[in-house]
Design brief:
The chain is mainly alpha-helical. The radius of gyration is 36 Å and the shape is elongated. Among the domains are: 85 residues, Orthogonal Bundle (Arc Repressor Mutant, subunit A); 94 residues, no CATH class; 31 residues. The strands form two sheets. It has a two-stranded antiparallel sheet. A two-stranded antiparallel ribbon has the order 3-4. The longest helix is centred in the C-terminal third of the chain and has 16 residues. The termini are far apart. The protein is 37% helix and 7% strand.
């Protein structure tokens, strides 16, 4: 005998590569689940699956966290988090009650649709010809209020209008240092593609980078400080770099009094040189090596 082929009706086949449903009508042992739960946005798959399992259980079934953890491979932590999700969404309500013998237990009420009690209370009831001898309806525990959207905290006006912290300004922004700083800023996108700056951004940030170079910071040190541990997403690269240039600015090296500009009129400013060994900028009247490289060379000798 050939194998029986099961397929959906011809008219039910959707176009494309989407899901194709092969449905068989259940006649026993099934639970009706609303799409508002099965397709609920904001609920995790663990919470949705746990709600389906709880709604399929008979009344009086025990659904403690430990019992559910024994039944499913998820940990107690994930199950507890899923139960809190269902409570927040209105599918579950848990309360602590004291029994007649003094024991305190957890009473759990499962709702196949949040706010079902409130809807039933507002629905009109048909008049009955029976007398007051008719038994009173059973009142279920009140449904938890529907979840409210999270409150949006609006910062005070001063947070929006406060002036940004000014960039550090160099003592002598020479053309050579300006070119070095501009090239460093333009080259950042090669190391961090999200740090794409406009020409205007580079012109604004150049004085801050020149200040780093004046304080004997190596270009590699500046580049690492500006590109390390970038936030995700990065919406404003120039604002982030402005903050880092200002907040992470290293102090001047001890004993670097020659970096302080003279206040006497007509004083001579010592020019900046690039170290022949490490290419670091330093102040000297003659080309050669920076302080660190001179120390290393003398030690090696």
């Amino acid at each position: 005998m050939g194998t029986q082929q099961i397929s959906a009706p011809p008219g039910a086949q959707p176009a494309g590569s989407g899901v194709i449903h092969v449905n068989v009508r259940h006649t026993a042992g099934f639970t009706v689940i609303g799409n508002h739960l099965a397709q609920r946005r904001g609920l995790s798959l663990v919470a949705i699956g746990l709600a389906v399992h709880i709604q399929s259980l008979p009344a009086g079934a025990r659904i403690g966290i430990k019992r559910l953890a024994e039944r499913f491979p998820e940990s107690e932590t994930r199950i507890a988090a899923a139960l809190r999700e269902l409570e927040a969404a209105g599918y579950l309500h848990r309360s602590r009650v004291r029994l007649g013998d003094g024991r305190i237990v957890t009473r759990t009420v499962s709702y196949n649709q949040p706010g079902a009690d409130a809807l039933a209370a507002r629905a009109p009831r048909p008049r009955s010809a029976r007398s007051t001898a008719e038994p009173a309806p059973v009142i279920s525990p009140p449904a938890p209020p529907p979840p409210q959207p999270a409150a949006v905290l609006v910062p005070p006006p001063t947070a929006r209008t406060a002036a940004p912290v000014p960039l550090p300004q160099p003592q002598a922004c020479t053309p050579e240092l300006q070119r070095t700083a501009a090239a460093l800023l333009s080259d950042l996108r090669r190391h961090a593609p999200r740090l794409v700056l406009s020409e205007t951004d580079i012109r604004v940030l150049v004085p801050g980078v020149v200040t780093w170079l004046e304080r004997d910071a190596h270009p590699d040190t500046v580049r690492h400080a500006l590109t390390a541990d970038l936030p995700v997403p990065l919406n404003h690269p120039a604002k982030l770099l402005r903050h880092r240039i200002t907040a992470l600015l290293p102090p001047p090296l001890p004993g670097a009094q020659d970096l302080v500009p003279p206040t006497r009129p007509g004083a001579i400013v010592i020019p900046l040189q690039n170290c022949d060994h490490c290419d670091r900028a330093f102040r000297s009247r003659h080309p050669g090596h920076c302080r660190d490289c001179r120390t290393d060379l003398s030690t090696a000798a």
